[in-house]
Design a protein that fits this description.
mainly alpha
């Protein structure tokens, strides 16, 4: 929508059409039947003057009836390109240093998530929003299902769930893990007030580009300052990252020492350092091209459509495998709490493991049908607290309840190293989410520090649990240290119930990205709520079938860590970086990336072979 600088009258525009610079476009020629009143000041768009005339009241009414209220356009200003002083002011709007331009300036081509770009027009279009739900990252909104670029899935059940809701309700579906502080809220309110009063809000645009914005996201034209979707502070970004990393992987760290010996902790430390470095590489890839927001976008920029699809499939299969792990975890821990539970149906007897796996499936299945995942997102954000609670309970059992830390163990167990590699690799399988966290930051220059905080804090927790668990239980350590805790202790029950509760809340959030990507592939006529329920139910039942078929928690985790985590965390970031930025990369960056790729491929091959062999041996 254009604002005339003198009359301050909004002019609705017809849908944009491309024109070369220098071509004359007369708005009155688009609406010849509307009576107009000439104004003195011309408005410039796409580098060419448009002869604007102020419509009379009946004309405005008629024009609105022709154009409707659903479509409006903005013309961005390029004053910041002409006046460098504005750039300096804008860079400091969020209180950060002036070198944070990557955060303070909205990314072109849809980089702020407010409108589609060439990358989000291809499958999977729902990746960013669905992963934002999983990671509790602040997202633009889920109203993307109603934009023209996704019109073919406009009847999906998520879109139907937003009908009748205000934009505020929709935008509240995904919120940051931590609420902004009072100073942050005051600062954001002040920025909004400054923008509302600024000349950017009133003056016509001179930038030769028209961009369509959804009705529920109409906002003043922001020439400077952070994107409205880049609102996560340092603390929020770090907490979101820790919440992603501190998952069920911590349960198997003592078992990893049992498999590989104490030398395995060196592997854990090396993986941590490499994970931080590849996270920084992902940031470099995102900054290399306008419009990159997610991991699939990076794959698209590096290897084209094939790379985008391949990386998306890898990420979705990894999430699917994590859901299988959740069911195995629930079955094992509930069976420990209630070992004598069983059901007999005729000649068929279901033991406690099978019974609790089926029961967990019946509990989580309705949560996958929910139209509003806000509640689950808030509850699952407590995963950090649950992980810390587990470590505290483990320490309490060892010190207060006198279990003791007497076991010494072996320094190196070569045959078990491949399994240990997979278990340690699983601990750092959060790189599919980190690009979303980066895109949500208010100050993107803080991302390397946030990555360091997330990985360092998580590594401390992993190491603490691994050392205490193995020193307490030694060679009797099971695949999850909660299974070794004495049953008669209250602290043990607290630890087990904390372990049980977290996956139930995370299951729906983990399976939703895969479900939404499959919904995109449905024909438009089949995108009904009943079909969506059937699809999601089928996914849940399939995870149950696999969990019952391969009920080996440690081996499945080692397989995920060896195959998918090595690809997502180590191999693909380096490969994408070299494909996108090899011409600008230094020699030591090329060497480092090549080394990480070789290490990742080696670990993936060795770990995957050992995991699959272990699974097969359990059936022989």
């Amino acid at each position: 929508m254009l604002w005339h600088p003198i009359a301050k009258i909004p002019f609705p525009l017809l849908p944009s059409y491309k024109t070369r610079q220098g071509d004359q476009r007369v708005l009155s020629s688009l609406t010849p039947s509307l009576p107009t009143l000439s104004l003195a000041t011309p408005v410039v768009a796409h580098g060419s003057p448009i002869s604007l005339r102020t419509p009379s009241a009946p004309a405005v009414s008629k024009m609105k009836s022709l154009l409707g209220e659903e479509r409006s356009f903005i013309i961005e200003s390029d004053d910041d390109e002409e006046d460098p002083t504005h750039n300096d002011a804008g860079a400091g709007d969020d209180g950060s240093s002036s070198d944070s331009s990557s955060c303070a300036t909205p990314r072109a081509g849809g980089g702020d998530g407010s409108h589609p770009n060439s990358y989000t027009n291809q499958w999977p279009q729902s990746y960013r929003q669905s992963i934002d739900i999983l990671s509790s990252v602040q997202s633009p909104s889920l109203s993307f299902l109603g934009t023209p670029t996704l019109s073919r899935i406009s009847n999906s059940f998520l879109h139907s769930s937003f009908r009748g809701k205000t934009p505020e309700v929709i935008s509240n579906l995904v919120k940051p893990l931590l609420r902004p502080t009072t100073s942050d809220e005051q600062q954001q309110q002040q920025q909004h007030e400054d923008i509302r009063k600024s000349s950017q809000y009133l003056l016509p645009s001179k930038k030769p580009s028209l961009q369509q914005i959804p009705e529920d996201q109409k906002a003043p034209v922001i020439g400077h300052g952070p994107s409205p979707y880049q609102q996560c502070s340092y603390t929020q970004g770090a907490m979101n990252g820790i919440n992603v990393l501190c998952g069920v992987g911590i349960l198997s760290t003592p078992y990893a020492i049992k498999q590989g010996g104490w030398f395995g902790l060196v592997i854990l430390g090396v993986f941590a350092v490499l994970a931080w470095y590849t996270g920084v590489l992902l940031r470099r890839c995102l900054d290399s091209t306008d419009g990159l927001q997610t991991y699939p976008d990076i794959g698209h920029a590096a290897f084209g459509t094939t790379g985008r699809i391949a990386i998306s499939i890898i990420l979705y299969v990894e999430l699917y495998a994590c859901c299988i792990e959740y069911l195995i975890l629930e079955s094992d821990n509930l069976s420990k709490l209630f070992p004598n539970v069983h059901i007999s149906i005729g000649s068929l007897t279901l033991n406690s493991h099978v019974f609790f796996a089926i029961l967990t499936t019946l509990v989580v299945m309705p949560t996958t049908w929910l139209r509003d995942l806000t509640c689950l997102s808030y509850i699952s954000a407590g995963g950090v607290v649950a992980t810390i609670l587990l470590v505290i309970c483990l320490f309490w059992v060892g010190v207060v309840d006198n279990v003791g830390f007497e076991n010494k163990g072996s320094t190196l167990n070569v045959p078990g190293i491949p399994i240990a590699i997979g278990l340690y690799g699983y601990c750092y399988s959060g790189h599919g989410v980190f690009p979303n966290i980066y895109s949500s930051l208010k100050n993107r220059n803080q991302f390397p520090s946030i990555m360091f905080t997330c990985i360092a804090f998580s590594t401390i927790l992993f190491t603490s649990a691994a050392v205490m668990g193995y020193k307490m239980f030694g060679e009797s350590t099971e695949s999850q240290f909660t299974l070794n805790l004495p049953q008669n202790l209250v602290v043990s029950k607290i630890a087990i119930w904390a372990t049980v509760a977290n996956p139930i809340t995370k299951y729906a959030l983990t399976i939703t990205p895969l479900a939404m990507s499959l919904e995109e592939l449905l024909p438009r006529s089949q995108q009904k709520y009943s079909n969506v329920i059937l699809l999601r139910s089928a996914l849940v039942i399939s995870t149950l079938a696999v969990a019952l078929l391969v009920p080996f928690f440690a081996l499945v985790m080692a397989l995920i860590g060896s195959l998918f985590a090595m690809l997502v965390t180590y191999i693909l970031p380096c490969a994408c970086f070299l494909a996108i930025l090899k011409a600008n990369a230094t020699w030591h960056q090329v060497v480092a990336c090549s080394f990480i790729i070789i290490v990742g491929v080696t670990c993936a091959c060795v770990g995957t072979y050992s995991s699959v062999s272990g699974i097969i041996q359990n059936y022989i």
